[in-house]
Design a protein that fits this description.
By secondary structure, the chain is mainly α. It is built from seven helices and no strands. The longest helix has 14 residues, at 12-25. The N and C termini lie far apart (46 Å). The relative contact order is 0.10.
């Protein structure tokens, strides 16, 4: 998919356009979850954090078992933090740890929560 090459090259405007076209034309493709995820990352790279969060929410909601869903949770939490939405960010990190406890992203989320001085799971009352 050419959009991914644009993404890798840092041509985020071109990548965004191509990922959007792909999702419109092939909404049921086996690659739709990847296209949506990299669309979100492209927005994040442009510091368009609102659009990134919206897009990561689509990945999370449309592809709850997708291989990039844990990464979507992690990236969403980072975007929320960029927008000073600390409570939302903490909640997203916690969901990630709860839903995908064995994922690499869950380990990263635990580290982020610890740096914030927040409990990592259900210990919180």
């Amino acid at each position: 998919i050419l959009a991914y090459n644009d993404y890798l090259a840092g041509n985020y405007e071109l990548a965004i356009s191509a990922f959007l076209d792909f999702l419109v034309n092939y909404p049921d493709s086996e690659y739709s979850d990847n296209a949506a995820y990299y669309l979100g990352v492209s927005y994040q790279q442009q510091q368009r954090f609102e659009k990134a969060i919206e897009t990561f929410d689509q990945v999370i909601n449309l592809y709850p078992k997708g291989d990039l869903t844990p990464s979507a949770y992690y990236k969403k939490a980072l975007a929320e933090r960029e927008l000073q939405r600390n409570e939302a960010s903490i909640e997203t990190f916690r969901k990630l740890v709860t839903l995908f406890p064995e994922s690499q992203e869950a380990n990263l989320a635990k580290r982020e929560l610890q740096m914030l001085g927040v409990e990592t799971g259900r210990e919180q009352r």
